[in-house]
Input
Amino acid sequence: MATAAAKRYAKAVFELAQEEGTLEEWSLRLGTIRELFANAEVAAVLSNPTISSARREALVAAAPQLLDAEGSNLARLLVESGRVDDAGEIDDQFQRLADEKAGRVRATVTTAIELGKADRDRVQSELSRRLAKEVRLSVVVDPRILGGLKLQYGDRVVDASVATRLEQLRRRLAAS
Output
C-alpha cells in the first residue's frame, strides 16, 4: 500500500503532466528515477543523513545523461524531503492514475508454469472483454500454486489455484 506522501507526489506530478500534455514523458522520468533510487548503493548515499542535503542533491543533478531538467528537479526534491524510498510507490501511483485516465486496468496472472503467448493473449482478451477496458497483463510464475491460476486486477483477486483448492479441502476435512 502506498504511503500518503507517495500518493500526494504522484497526484501532483500527474496533474502537472496532464496540464502540459506530457503523461508519457513523466511516466518515463518516474521509471528512470525509480530505477536510479532502487540501486542499493545510490539509495544508501542519497538517504545518508551524514552527507549534506546540498551534496546529495548535487549528485542527482550531476547525472544529466539519466534525467532531463524536470526529472532532475523531482529527484532532487525527493532527496531533499527524505523521500528516496518512496520513488517506486510514486511511480506505481502515477501509473495507476494514468491507467484510470486512459480507461486501462493492470492485471497480474500467477501460474505454476510459464504461459505461452496464446494463453497469455486469451487471458488478456477475455479479461478485457469482461471488464470492457483495455487490460495490461503481467505474468508471474510461482510453482507453489501447483496448477491453475491466480488473477489480480484492481482490488480484486480470483484464486483458482490448485494450492488454494487443496487448502480448502484440508480445512473441510479437519472440520469434519
